[in-house]
Design goal:
elongated; five-stranded parallel β-sheet; five-stranded mixed β-barrel; 412 residues
Length: 412
C-alpha cells in the first residue's frame, strides 16, 4: 500500500487550475495519513462536556488557554466515568488519545482511551517553574513597579459580574472618597474563558488615558479556580501596562503570579479599595493637623520676631539715636582741639629753634665779622690771602669790607 502522505504530495504537485483535486479525495488522503499516526498524550482544559443519558460516547472539547486553540475529543462512557467524580468543565486533564479525521466534514478530533486529571501538586509545580522563568526575565523586579497616584480620578476595575469583589471595591472606595469614578469591565474570573477576557479587559482599560489605576479583583477561591490569574498570557499583559495595576485576589495561602507582577498587591478587594483611594475623613483630619501645626509655627515665628524687635527697640541707640552722635561729636571736638594744641606746640617749638639757629648763624656769619671793621683780601683768582708771603709787591688785591669792596696794591 502506498503512503497517503506521499500520494497526496504527488497529487498536489500534479494538480493544476484545469485539473484540481476533489475535496473528497484530499480529505480521504488526509484521513489516511492521520490514521497512521500513533496515540499521544495531550494536556488541556475542558471547555465543553456532553454526557447524554444512555449514550455510550462522551463528547468534550479540550482548549489550550495560552494559544486559544481547541480540539474535539470523544471517548467511551466507561473511560470518562472513571474520572467523572473529579473532572468537569474548567478542569485541566491529560488525555491519551489517537488523532482521527472525519472525512465528510474535514474535521480533526481525538479518540481518548484514558483521561487523567492534573493534580494540585503538579499544578503548583508547573506554576513554580513558570514563576522562576518569569522572574529571570525581570517581570517581578521591584524597580519596574510603578507608583500609584495619590488620588485617582478614574479607576479601572476588572471583576466578575455582580460579584462580591465588585461590590466590596465600589462600596468601600466610594465610602472613602465619594467623588471617585470607576470604569468597570465585568468578565469571567474562572473557567476556560477567563484568561482571554481578563487580558482583553486589562488592555482596554490601559488604552484609556483617563484611567489612573487598574484593579483586578476576585473574592478568593481554590487553587484551580485561581489558575487564570497565574496564566503566562495575563502576567505578560499586566507587565506591559503603562497604567499601574493592583492585584486584589482574596486568597492569602496561595499567591497567584498576578500578585507578583502587579505594581501593588492587596490581600482582598476591600484592602484594594483602601490602598487605592484615600479616606476623605483621614485626609481632612490630616489637613486640619497640618493647618494647626502651620498656625503654631507662624505664631511662634511672629512671637520670636516680636521679642527680637522689642529687644532691639530697648537699646539706647534706638531709643535716643542722637545721643550717640552727640557723644561722638564731643569726642571729635576734643580730638580736634587736642590736635590744634599739639600743632601749635610743634610750631612754637620749631619757631624757637629756628630763631636760635638764625641767631647762631648770624653770630658766626663772616658779614658780622666784617661789620666789626675787619676786611678780607682776595687775590685775582678769588682766593683769600691768609699769609703775607702769598702776595708779591705791586700785586693788586681786592679788599672786601662790610659795606662793599675796593682794590689795593701791595707796596712791600
Amino acid at each position: 500500500m502506498s503512503d497517503p502522505a506521499v500520494t497526496l504530495g504527488r497529487m498536489a504537485a500534479n494538480s493544476t487550475p484545469e485539473s484540481p483535486l476533489p475535496v473528497g479525495e484530499v480529505s480521504r488522503l488526509i484521513g489516511g495519513w492521520i490514521d497512521r499516526l500513533g496515540a499521544v498524550w495531550v494536556e488541556g482544559q475542558i471547555t465543553q462536556l456532553s454526557r447524554r443519558p444512555g449514550a455510550g460516547v462522551v463528547f468534550l472539547t479540550l482548549r489550550d488557554p495560552s494559544y486559544d486553540i481547541s480540539v474535539s475529543v470523544t471517548c467511551y462512557r466507561q473511560v470518562f466515568d472513571a474520572v467523572a467524580d473529579v473532572v468537569g468543565e474548567g478542569a485541566r486533564v491529560v488525555v491519551h488519545a489517537k488523532p482521527e479525521w472525519y472525512a465528510p466534514r474535514g474535521q480533526l478530533s481525538l479518540r481518548a482511551a484514558e483521561i487523567k486529571p492534573v493534580g494540585v501538586g503538579e499544578l503548583l509545580a508547573r506554576l513554580e517553574q513558570l514563576k522562576k522563568s518569569l522572574a529571570r526575565e525581570g517581570l517581578f523586579a521591584a524597580e519596574r513597579k510603578k507608583p500609584l497616584p495619590f488620588l485617582p480620578q478614574l479607576i479601572g476595575l476588572v471583576c466578575g459580574r455582580a460579584s462580591a469583589a465588585e461590590r466590596d471595591v465600589l462600596e468601600n472606595a466610594r465610602h472613602r472618597w465619594p467623588a471617585v469614578r470607576f470604569e468597570v469591565r465585568n468578565v469571567p474570573v474562572q473557567g476556560v474563558h477567563a484568561v482571554p477576557q481578563v487580558v482583553q479587559a486589562v488592555k482596554e482599560l490601559d488604552a484609556i488615558d483617563d484611567v489612573d489605576v487598574i484593579v483586578v479583583a476576585r473574592g478568593g477561591g481554590s487553587v484551580e479556580d485561581l489558575l487564570p490569574f497565574s496564566d503566562e498570557q495575563l502576567v505578560r499583559a499586566v507587565a506591559q501596562c503603562r497604567t499601574p495595576v493592583v492585584s486584589a485576589i482574596g486568597h492569602e495561602p496561595d499567591s497567584p503570579l498576578l500578585d507578583l507582577v502587579a505594581d501593588l498587591r492587596a490581600s482582598t478587594p476591600t484592602d484594594a479599595a483602601k490602598k487605592v483611594v484615600p479616606d476623605v475623613g483621614e485626609e481632612y483630619e490630616r489637613v486640619r493637623l497640618l493647618r494647626d501645626r502651620a498656625r503654631r509655627c507662624v505664631a511662634a515665628f511672629v512671637d520670636r520676631e516680636e521679642r527680637g524687635l522689642a529687644h532691639a527697640l530697648a537699646r539706647p541707640s534706638i531709643q535716643d539715636p542722637h545721643r550717640m552722635i552727640e557723644e561722638r561729636a564731643e569726642q571729635v571736638t576734643a580730638l580736634l582741639e587736642r590736635g590744634r594744641r599739639a600743632l601749635r606746640h610743634h610750631l612754637d617749638r620749631a619757631d624757637s629753634e629756628l630763631t636760635h639757629t638764625h641767631a647762631r648763624v648770624v653770630a658766626l656769619s663772616p658779614a658780622a665779622t666784617l661789620k666789626r671793621g675787619y676786611a678780607v683780601l682776595q687775590r685775582a683768582d678769588g682766593h683769600a690771602v691768609r699769609d703775607p708771603g702769598e702776595v708779591e709787591p705791586g700785586e693788586t688785591l681786592r679788599a672786601r669790607v662790610s659795606e662793599g669792596d675796593f682794590s689795593v696794591r701791595v707796596d712791600a
